[in-house]
Amino acid sequence: MESLISFLKHSSGLELLVMLGVILLAVILIPAGVWIVVASRRRKAVYLFLLVALLPLLLALLGTYLSLANVEKAAAMFPEASAEIVTAARQEAWIPTYLGAVGTVIPLLIGVIGLVLKKDNQA
Known about the structure:
The protein is mostly helical. The protein has one domain (2-117). The chain contains 6 helices and no strands. The protein has helices at residues 2-10, 13-39, 43-52, 55-77, 83-93, 95-117. The N and C termini lie far apart (44 Å).
């Protein structure tokens, strides 16, 4: 929890916007996935939902890339920074990916359950 608070304090506006996008996308995908599973009659819609469910993770990877780029730029600007500080900053840069993974797993599970429930093999 301490590293999350530190990450939020030291994040740029773009990094925070990416994290907000990941959270909003995950929150929207959960009820959308349930609706698709209940309303669709074929597996094609569920397969499409599974592809869309990967978006929070992909957006989070973009946020991680931006964070790591900022860490490397700061490490180059301040070579006297200790290795422990740079390592801690790199670990904090992975927080968006963890958040994106959680935001992706839940919709993916909903999609997999939908595939199991849809017994027809038509696409």
